[in-house]
Structures are given as structure tokens and as C-alpha cells.
Amino acid sequence: MLVLREKDVQEVLKGLDPKEIKEFQVELASSLADYNKNPSLIPQRIVASTDAAVHLFMPSLGKNIGLKALTGSSHGFKGIVTLLDGDDGTPIGILNASTLTAFRTALATTLALSKTFKTDDDIDRKALTVFGSGPQAFWHVKLALILYPSVTTVIVVNRSQESGAKLVNDLKSEFQTVSYELHLLNEPEVYSKAVHRSSIIFGCIPSTEPAIKFKDLSTTSKTFIGLIGSYKPHMKEVDDETIDFLVSSNSKILIDSYEHTKHEAGELQSVDTKYLIELGEIWETDSFSIESVNNTPVVLSKIVGLSIMDVSVGADILSRASKLHIGINIDDF
């Protein structure tokens, strides 16, 4: 059995190139396609509360068998992903879930992004705006910059100047040729202009008041919006006008799960399922065109996160770690 600490997971993911990201995408898309055909691959999760924390246990029965265990407390979210042999239950590996969770969520967003902008040349406005400053924001921007090197400007919009500056510095250490801007969330008159000139917009902030507004979007050239921050029915990252614009034009919103989205995505609570489409469905064919399901220049993706994503991407990371001799090997577990 192989054990991957947080630093081990980060080591495996260090120095990713477009080819490796696409390899990860294929594995993740395959698991989501299996889930699309058979939603029972994700059994109902167990949620239990104690005085100090909330504990979640989320199994997955896809090609890779495993479980994500997560605890949310005043110290944030911490947990592990375990993988088992599907035939006899022999433990295969355990991974720290922190970086894995951020990476697999950003990877899922890139499944939608890659269908929106198939090549780097498809992006005409070379700016990217991200709302948020945590690991999710970092990985969303990092993967986008690797896949689309023509992006020249990253705009960070955040509640806190300090944590926003940290994200900018972390990104600068890896992408020195990109220019960066930092704006505060309480300055909408400033960041609205940044949103308008961005081809790619990521929402990575849990919020009850939408920061991404239709009036700020460019509707004359293609704009991709990837949302992952809000995770409860009363939370919204994008305003109702944006949703109404997409629905009224008979366009589909890209999601990871019909069932879980309706429970967790505040933006989509009133949206009929006929205006949603799962990523696992659109990735089943290489010939899929975003224009076949979207009649506007605005493309919206909402990822709520699924255990099958953790387990499939975790299995891929575990396999790579084994080949690179990274992690702690326990022979007689």
C-alpha cells in the first residue's frame, strides 16, 4: 500500500505540462462518463456531526473503488482519500485530500473550459479573472495558464488584500511573464471592468451575494465562467440575469451531476434540468462542439464535486507516484 502525504501529492503534480493535464482529463472524463450512465456508482454519503466538527464519508464504486473522508471544523476542511482493490478489498493507497480536492475540482472545470476554447488561438481577450484566493483559485488559474499560454493578464478579486496578495505571489513564482492585478471584492466598480475584458472567469468564493453580474460580461465574444465556490442552495456566485440569459437562449449549463447540482448549487435551484448537461455526457465524443448546446457567447460551468472525481484522480496520482518512487510504501499493511 502506498501512502501519499500532502507534500507527496504536490510533488507528483509539480511541473505539469499540457500533455499531462490532458492525460488527467481523460481519466476524470472517463469516470464522469461512467457516472453519467450509472449514477448509482456514487452511493449516498454519510454526514455526521460532533460538537467540534462535521464529518463526511463519501464512497465511490466506479472503475476505482474508494472513499473520501472529510472533516470540516474551525480549522477548515481536512481529510483523506482511500483506494481499495475492487475484488478483495486490499488497501491500495491513502492520499491526503487537501491538494487532491483543489486539483480535481480545477481539472473538472478544465473539462468544460477545454470544450469552450479548444485551442489557445480561440481566446481573443487575453485576460483571466478569478474570484477567491485559496487552493481552488490557485489550481484553476494554474491549469488555465498551462493550457492557454497566450493569457497575459490574471486579475485576482478577493475579500482580503493579504490573502489575495499571497495568491498573486504564488502564481508569480511559477508564471513570471504574466501580469497581475489585485482588486478587493468591495470595489465592484473597479473589478467589473476587469470582468468585462476577461475571456475566462473563475468563481471560487462561497457567497450569498453574486459577484459575477451579467451587466459586466462581454456578450460579443466568447466568455467562459467556471463556478465552484458556492455549495449550498442559498449561495450564489453569479446573478439571476446571467442564468436567465442562458435559459432564454435555450443554452445548456455544463455541470458534473444532475442530482447533486440541484441539491447544492444555489444558482441553479430554479433551472429546469433540460437546460443542464453533464460533463460525462459531452466528453463521450471527440466531435462534441460547445455550439451544439450553447446559443450565446457566454458559457457557464458549475462544479459541485463528486467522490468519483477524488477517487479516479487519486488513483491516477497514486499510479504516477509509484512510478516516480514518491510516497511511503507499506508492504505488509
Secondary-structure map:
Elements: E1 2-4, H1 6-13, H2 18-37, E2 46-49, E3 53-61, E4 65-73, E5 76-84, E6 91-96, H3 97-116, E7 127-131, H4 135-147, E8 153-158, H5 161-172, E9 179-184, H6 188-196, E10 200-203, E11 223-227, H7 240-248, E12 253-255, H8 258-264, E13 276-278, H9 279-282, E14 298-302, H10 307-324, E15 328-329
Parallel strand pairs: 1-6, 7-8, 7-10, 8-9, 10-11, 11-14, 12-13, 12-14
Antiparallel strand pairs: 1-15, 2-3, 3-4, 4-5, 5-6
Helix pairs in contact: 1-10, 2-3, 2-10, 3-4, 3-10
- What's the CATH topology name of the largest domain? Rossmann fold
The name of the CATH architecture of the largest domain is 3-Layer(aba) Sandwich
Q: Show unreliable segments.
A: none
| Mean of pLDDT | 94
CATH superfamily of the largest domain: NAD(P)-binding Rossmann-like Domain
Protein name: BA75_02450T0
Family: Belongs to the ornithine cyclodeaminase/mu-crystallin family.
Pfam family, one: OCD_Mu_crystall
InterPro entries: NAD(P)-bd_dom_sf, ODC_Mu_crystall, ODC_N
Structure explained in plain terms:
The chain has 333 residues and is of the alpha/beta class. It has two domains: 2-101 and 308-329, ornithine cyclodeaminase, domain 1, CATH 3.30.1780.10; 102-305, Rossmann fold. It has ten helices and 15 strands. The strands form two sheets. It has an eight-stranded parallel sheet with strand order 9-8-7-10-11-14-12-13, sandwiched between helices. The model has no long low-confidence stretch (mean pLDDT 94).
